[in-house]
User: What shape does this take?
Amino acid sequence: MGELNDRENWIEKAGETTGFFIEYINQQKELLTLEWSGKVSKLVGFSLLLIVVLGLSGLILLFLGFACAHYLQEIGYSASRSYLLVAGGAFLLFLLIWLLRRYILFNPVLRIFLGIIYDEEKEH
Assistant: This one.
């Protein structure tokens, strides 16, 4: 009779332990989901902000180019020469950005992305 009670107690304790373990796994899964959803939302927010800022910067450069071309026309250059000078300046700016893209674009953006992903892990 004592052996039967020991088995029942052991089975009951194993069932309770399994239940606690399953509950722990479910809570860890939920915590991981919440952490990654927060990180993904920060990444998406930063990406959208970056797209908007780059788009507005391109629009600003476009209007500054038009203004510069009109200014060059007012000081005596022909329309074709002033637009050609502005296009040449824009090309040189593009070439400079292209050659330095790793240092002025990729590395800072990657640093921000990785900072968003690993920021919360440093706090724990």
